[in-house]
């Protein structure tokens, strides 16, 4: 019992570390494509993948044969790799009882698997770099070491991406200060420009005065160009790191329509089009909403439905993003809801027997709290669950 409890806690820490990286899986394909092709080339194998594994799913963010895609975690081979400390090699994949009936092993007639954990600097395995082949392989120790170097490079890029995001936040704060300064000085400078232009147009007799004012005009024009440049840079940085309601909807559909469809669940994402002018930070939104949708998919039976509603609410002269995720799944009892608020971790199978550690809502609660948001869960057994998230923008 204690062993299972420790395993669940470790899984919570592992899943939390992956969520803390705040990754947009749809945008990672190009960044790692060459490294994945290099892994395939080094080992002379048919297939190479980079897989990131969350609470319920394996996200193949880069592969040598396809666009990024998602599979249920129980169908993942790499889920066993991340539970170990080193390289996982399966020379007879089709004869292993754990994988002989795996749909991907059977479909692609796979015989060989080699997986290297993607271990972050704090020690958690967030995924795996793997190669697979339809024939038995004998990959040398030297080549395995080269694959380990590729895996380390992938982890380094992911962690540096997080550091870059943090630096961009700091830069955005600095540019915001420059932006305020630019606005403060732009108005009086505009007045000076108007004054000097008027003096020039009045054909003053004093040539020296005109020359003097021309110098002022030129200096002020340069200052105006500087303020315009500051404002333009700020806008570009904001656009890069922000969503509006329509782009958030598009990202969610790209990531979760297929997983929902694979279970024959209708997923509808809607938003108030009259409020699409609002811009808000991308930070932590995809992990928060993604966990809610994945949780809903897990606990909603086939032929069920999930509705995601995105909106902007104004209150006390402040704006808030509101996200509502409602499903008609199996719901939760009052006791289970109480367990969630008490941080009780447990293993909860989904409606199709999906494996999971019951961590989705607890991870969401922690992330929502970290950005000063609010979370509310309403659920009843056999009546579904509705989760409301409100975060300031």
Question: Can you walk through the features of this model?
Answer:
This protein has 393 residues and is α+β, with helices and mostly antiparallel strands. It has 10 helices and 13 strands. A 6-stranded antiparallel beta sheet has the order 3-2-1-6-5-4. Helix 5 runs antiparallel to helix 6 and helix 7 packs parallel to helix 8. The longest helix has 61 residues, at 141-201. Mean pLDDT is 80; it is low at 1-6 and 342-347.
Radius of gyration, rounded? 27 Å
* Residue fraction in strands: 15-25%
Major sheet strand order: 3-2-1-6-5-4
Give the CA-CA distance, first to last residue.
43 Å
Report mean pLDDT, rounded to a whole number: 80
Q: Structural class from helices and strands?
A: alpha+beta
InterPro entries: GAF, GAF-like_dom_sf, HATPase_C_sf, HATPase_dom, His_kinase_dom, HisK_dim/P_dom, HisK_dim/P_sf, Sig_transdc_His_kin-like_C
Catalytic activity: ATP + protein L-histidine = ADP + protein N-phospho-L-histidine
Protein name: histidine kinase
GO molecular function: kinase activity
């Amino acid at each position: 019992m204690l062993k299972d409890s420790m395993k669940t806690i470790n899984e919570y820490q592992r899943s939390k570390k992956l969520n803390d990286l705040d990754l947009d899986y749809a945008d990672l394909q190009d960044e790692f494509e060459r490294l994945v092709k290099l892994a395939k080339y080094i080992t002379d194998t048919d297939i190479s993948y980079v897989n990131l594994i969350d609470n319920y799913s394996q996200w193949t963010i880069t592969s040598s044969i396809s666009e990024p895609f998602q599979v249920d975690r129980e169908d993942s081979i790499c889920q066993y790799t991340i539970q170990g400390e080193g390289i996982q090699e399966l020379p007879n994949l089709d004869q292993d009882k754990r994988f002989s009936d795996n749909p991907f092993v059977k479909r692609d007639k796979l015989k060989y698997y080699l997986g290297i954990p993607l271990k972050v600097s704090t020690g958690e395995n967030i995924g795996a770099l793997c190669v697979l082949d339809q024939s038995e392989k004998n990959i040398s120790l030297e080549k395995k070491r080269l694959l380990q170097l590729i895996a380390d490079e992938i982890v380094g890029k992911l962690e540096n991406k997080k550091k870059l995001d943090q630096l961009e936040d700091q830069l955005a704060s600095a540019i915001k200060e420059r932006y305020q300064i630019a606005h403060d000085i732009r108005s009086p400078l505009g007045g000076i420009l108007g004054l000097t232009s008027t003096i020039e147009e009045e054909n003053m007799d004093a040539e020296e005065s005109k020359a003097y004012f021309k110098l002022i005009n030129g200096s002020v024009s340069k200052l105006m160009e500087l303020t315009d440049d500051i404002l333009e840079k700020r806008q570009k940085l904001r656009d890069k790191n922000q969503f509006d309601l329509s782009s958030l909807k598009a990202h969610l559909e790209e990531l979760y329509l297929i997983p929902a469809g694979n279970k024959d669940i209708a997923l509808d994402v809607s938003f108030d089009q009259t409020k699409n002018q609002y811009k808000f930070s991308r930070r932590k939104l995809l992990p928060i909403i993604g966990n809610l949708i994945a949780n809903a998919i897990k606990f909603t039976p086939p032929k069920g439905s999930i509705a995601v509603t995105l909106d902007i609410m104004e209150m006390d002269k402040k704006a808030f993003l509101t996200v509502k995720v409602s499903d008609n799944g199996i719901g939760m009892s009052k006791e289970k809801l109480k367990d969630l608020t008490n941080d009780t971790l447990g293993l909860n199978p989904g409606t199709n027997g999906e494996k999971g550690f019951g961590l989705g809502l607890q991870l969401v609660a922690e992330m929502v709290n970290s950005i000063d948001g609010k979370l509310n869960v309403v659920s009843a057994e056999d009546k579904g669950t509705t989760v409301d998230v409100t975060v300031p923008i």
